[in-house]
Structure formats: structure tokens, C-alpha cells
Amino acid sequence: MSSVDSKLYLFAVNEAKEAVALDGEGKYRQAINKYQRAAESLIQFIKYNKNPIMIERCKAQIEEYLERAKILKSHLSGTRPKKYSSSSPSQGKIGPSEGKEGGNSEGYSEEEQELLDMISGTILTESPEVKWKDIAGLKNCKQLLREAIVLPIMKPELFTGARKPWSGVLLFGPPGCGKTLLAKAAATEVKATFFSASSADLLSKWLGESEKLISALFKVARLRAPSLIFIDEIDSVATKRGSGSESGGERRVKTQLLSEIQGMKSTEDKPLLVLGATNRPWDIDNAMLSRFQKKVYVPLPDLEARGEIFKIHTKGVNTALDADDYIELGVRSEGYTGRDISNVCREVIMIPIRELDMSGILENSDQKVEVRDITVDDFKKTLKKVKPMVDKKELKRYQTWAEEFGEY
Known about the structure:
Number of helices: 16
Strand content: 5-15%
Number of strands: 6
CATH superfamily of the largest domain: P-loop containing nucleotide triphosphate hydrolases
Largest sheet: 6 strands, mixed
CATH class of the largest domain: Alpha Beta
Radius of gyration: 26 Å
CATH architecture of the largest domain: 3-Layer(aba) Sandwich
Distance between the termini: 57 Å
Helix content: 40-55%
Strand order of the largest sheet: 1-3-4-5-2-6
Shape: globular
Order of helices and strands: HHHHEHEHEHHEHEHEHHHHHH
Structural class: alpha/beta
Number of domains: 3
Oligomer: single chain
């Protein structure tokens, strides 16, 4: 069996195991999807496998998985399925009340619950607990997001007639500057449902599944409005169309995403906003850029913000630093992103532990251990070793693009 064959077979086995588990838990829609995936993988597997015994065994499994999926579909649609044998993959029967037509305890209809199940394993739906105060600096970005997201939901009576809130906002800038944190803080501020999807979440190797997933995401967001759909690294799924490396599947995904954003309807009582984030805004298709009425540049942290970031990432750790020391660290870390400073802090707060470990003190479990305070000298030494990841040439490119398409 070749490596490709074995991967296909192992994938099918894992999908079937997950299907059985979901089937046993009564999560029939998700189980149907897993049974079908397992069957499709085995179909591909037997195309390349030459072992007749293995082929016959796989054919029997394919038939079994598809039959179980058919029975579950019949049950969910309200029709009476034929009684399944005790050797079914789930090793169990469907109860009379499980999967019943007409909704569930949360008040969703059967169709709505199906959409929720579709994105539950792929798209993260959460209520983030990030506040504005957790983000140092970026005052202009915070104000723009308040105008686009927070105020229309808090004070909908102010946004009537021609004064309508934006339905699409694009955050762009160097990596590690707080784009994701800004999105989470905005959702927390208004207690909106936060949908977080990356390009990996939206893309699937199965024909047509990506388009279905995108459609389901926007439908669920409308059901749970007020909602904020955050698409990280949106340039990965919205590159310029017509490039030589573009496949038919990628083109269909872009078209579906464009269609959903264009047709998105946001009302006063059910506001819906799409927030995209990218480190490469110049790679995004022009049609997609036009869907984002507001383009916000998220720059490197300024001097004051850098000092605050050092404080945030050393919170709860004993330090021997005063206000002047944080100002000095802010000066020394010019050109660093928030993520760079976070990495510096993580390295520094481990220095006292490393010293204790190298001295052998930690080997004696009975000995009381005292950890020294971290000092400004620890930071100075670490800043010489940990360098910023964004160079001046790249920063200039962001600033040029911001001047042409976005705003500060």
C-alpha cells in the first residue's frame, strides 16, 4: 500500500470513528457528513488499490456508511426509515424524541439547527472577553471601530436615513499589531456574537463544500445577530482573480464570498458586520476591496503604547521597574510590534527561573524557592537578542498603500 493509499484509508477510518461517536451522541447531521466523507475517501482509495480482498472489504464499508447516512437523513426529514440492523456503525437506535422535527430546546428550527451544526466544527463562535483597556494605544483604530460597530448597536436611533453604519471594515497592517484583538474587543463591547473564521476554515478539498460553508456562516450570523464575522488573513481567500495559479474551486469560493458580503442585509434590530484582517492588502481582489467601505491601517505601536505593552505582558510577575524604566523600554523597542514585545517579555520572565534551574536549586523539592524580581537590565539584554520582525521597507509599503486606499 503506497503512502497516498494509506493516508486515504486512515482518513476514512478516522472519519468513520468520528461518525460513530457523533451518531451515538445523537448529533445526526454531523454524523451524516462524516459517514459521507468516509465513504468518499474509500471510493478514492479503491481506485488506486490492487488488493481484491481489500477492495471488497472497502465496498462493504462504503455501502454500510452510505446506508446509515441515508437512514439518518430519512429520520431527520420526518419519514419512517427501515429498521437498521444491530451491526450498524453506531451500534445504537434512534430514540423517538431525538432529532425530532420542529426545533430544539434553544428554539431553533430544524433548518437553522442544521446550519449551526454545519459550522460548529469549523468556525469558532464565541463571546470574547477582550476589553478596549486590554489593547495598548491604537486610539484612532478604536474610535473608528466604535463608529462602525459599537455605536450603531448601542444607539441605533442615531443611524437612520442616510446615516447608515458601515457593513464592511478591513483592518490591515504589519502582523502582530493587534488586528484580531481589536475585532474581539469590539464584539465584547456590544455583546455581539463573534464568528472567527480563517482561510483554512473556509476552504475545503471537497467539491462545493466551501461555498456551502460560507453560505451557512452568513445565515447563522443573521440568525444570531447582532453578529460580527471576523475573517482573518482574508487575502488568502480573496486574491486577485484571473491569476495563472487560480483554480476553478478558488474562483467559486471568491464568488460566493463576494456574493454573501454584497447581499448582506443589516437592520437596526439585527446589525451584521464583516470585519476582515490582512497583512497583505495589495493582494486582495479589487471587487473584494470595494465591499469594505472602511479600510483602517493598524500601525506599529507608538512610544507610549510600547511602554504599556511591556506592563501588560509582565502583569502578575514581580518586577523592579518604575515608570521611567518603562519609558526607556519603549524607546529601546522602537520598530517592534506588540507580538515582538510579548515575545521579549516571555523570554525575560523566564530568566529568573532559568537561573534557579541552572544553579541546581530546583532539584531539591523540599527547599523553599524564592524567585528574584526581573530588572530593566534583563530587558536590555533580551532586546539585543530578540529583534523586530518587520523591516523599514515593508513598513513603507504599508504606509504607501494606506495613503492610497485606506486611512490612518
